[in-house]
Amino acid sequence: DTARVAFVGLGNMGAPMIGHLVRAGWDVRGFDLSPAACEAARAGGVDVASSLAEALDGAGTLVTMLPAGRHVLAVFEEAASLLPAGALHLDCSTIDIASARLLHERAAACDLLSVDAPVSGGTGGAAAATLTFMLGGTEAAVSQAMPLLERMGRRIVPCGAGGSGQAAKICNNMLLGISMIGVCEAFVLAEKLGLSHQALFDVASTSSGQCWSLSTYCPVPGPVPTSPANNDYRPGFASALMTKDLTLAQEAARDAGAETPLGRAALDLYAALVEAGEGGRDFSAMVEFLRARSAP
Ligand code: NAD
Questions:
Q1: Which of 6, 52, 174, 177 has the fewest CB atoms below 10 angstroms from its CB?
Q2: What number of helices (H) and strands (E) belong to the chain?
Q3: Rounded distance, CA 201 to CA 218, Å?
Q4: ipTM of the predicted structure?
Q5: Is the separation of the CB atoms in 34 and 57 below 8 Å?
Q6: How confident is the model at residue 148 (pLDDT cuts 50, 70, 90)?
Q7: Quick check: 1 pLDDT over 60?
Q8: Domain architecture of the chain: domains with CATH
Q9: 143 with 61: CB under 8 angstroms?
Q10: Which H or E run includes 73?
Q11: Among positive and negative, which fits the CA dihedral 13, 15, 21, 26?
């Protein structure tokens, strides 16, 4: 019965995501190594198994929402022999390109379907089922994944062959990290030049400096009232997660031989921000970091 789903990884993202499947009436069983995560999911009405094998019993789909490639590979290897031929592995985690490609190869070798489907939208998007999914995999695999994805997200973007979802995610987030630093630098320079935040915003948001990091997610309080800057930089999108994604982008750039000097510089700056103890704050707090490093 391919309708039965094993969902592994009930953390900040996985817990709200599995909740949508449960409420939609899916036959889904969760599993996590953390007793606290299992307990919280049970309290939320999720059927939680006491082992991965138990979660997989009778399942035709394995969903993973785990920290990194090594966790997904470990779960996949344990699960592969327990899944029937033609079953689907849907990995929603953000992982390195090399592991993502290996997962697709291993799935094909085990006669399983495979989709990499990293998300953007964060915990808020997971809770509201408004995530964007970026997909890599064959058409057959993607169409098998679609009913699940439609329950957990709003925008579903097929990006190409296996690994393309992860590629889209890290290219986008590398661009986002770079553009946010650019916007923060412009505000810090404006402050030194006696130009008001609002004046810079009014000019740049309607001219060639316009970008999402400025117009939607403005890193100084005032011009865009809904941005995390107005809420003491509570995430939002934590700098630690931006650092993870910029690291994955640099690994991929190195392996693929792409020249990405600004991606490297963005990683160095976000790593320094995390090092300074700011990893839990929103990534737009970069403006405070640059201000603090500027001459008094
Ligand atoms: P999390 O740390 O809150 O949850 C991960 C869970 O996986 C934990 O509960 C952990 O116990 C469990 N786990 C680890 N290894 C396991 C194993 N072998 N078997 C079973 N369970 C295992 O992380 P999260 O915030 O939910 O993020 C999950 C993924 O989503 C990451 O790849 C992250 O980069 C990505 N992501 C997160 C966000 C966000 O805002 N949190 C946004 C987009 C993407």
A1: 52
A2: 13, 9
A3: 8
A4: 0.99
A5: no
A6: very high
A7: no
A8: 5-161 (3.40.50.720), 167-293 (1.10.1040.10)
A9: no
A10: helix 69-80
A11: positive
On the 0-12 / 13-18 / 19+ scale of CB atoms within 10 A, 296 is exposed
CB of 65 closer than 8 Å to CB of 11: yes
- Per the structure block, which two tokens stand in for 118? 């990293």
166 pLDDT above the threshold of 50: yes
Closest by CA to 227, choosing from 184, 278, 169, is: 184
Select from 209, 213, 103, 107 the least CA-distant residue to 165: 103
**Count of Cβ atoms closer than 10 Å to residue 196 Cβ:** 12
Q: Is the pLDDT of residue 2 over 90?
A: no
| Distance (Å) from CA 55 to ligand 1 centroid | 17
Choosing from 20, 71, 89, 169, which is the catalytic residue?
Answer: 169
CA distance 232 to 236: 11
Provide the pLDDT for residue 3.
Answer: 85
Mutate to test the pocket of ligand 1, among 7, 10, 12 (most ligand atoms within 8 A of CB): 12
Taking alpha carbons only, the member of 179, 185, 182 closest to residue 290 is 185
Closest CA to 11 of 39, 26, 32: 32
Angstrom distance (rounded) from CA 201 to CA 269: 23
How many CA atoms are closer than 13 Å to the CA of 175, on its beta-carbon side? 7
Residues 168, 117 contacting (CB under 8 angstroms): no
Ligand 1 mean position, distance from CA 180 (Å) = 25
- 170 vs 168: CA distance, rounded Å: 6
Residue 49 structure tokens = 């198994």
Q: What is the pLDDT of residues 208-234, one digit of tens each?
A: 999 999 999 999 999 999 999 999 999
The pair of three-digit structure tokens given for residue 220, joined into one six-digit string: 């100084």
Q: What are residue 268's phi and psi, to 5 degrees?
A: -60, -40
Ligand 1 pocket, residues with Cβ under 6 angstroms: 8-14, 31-34, 37, 65-67, 71, 74-75, 93-94, 119, 122-123, 241, 244
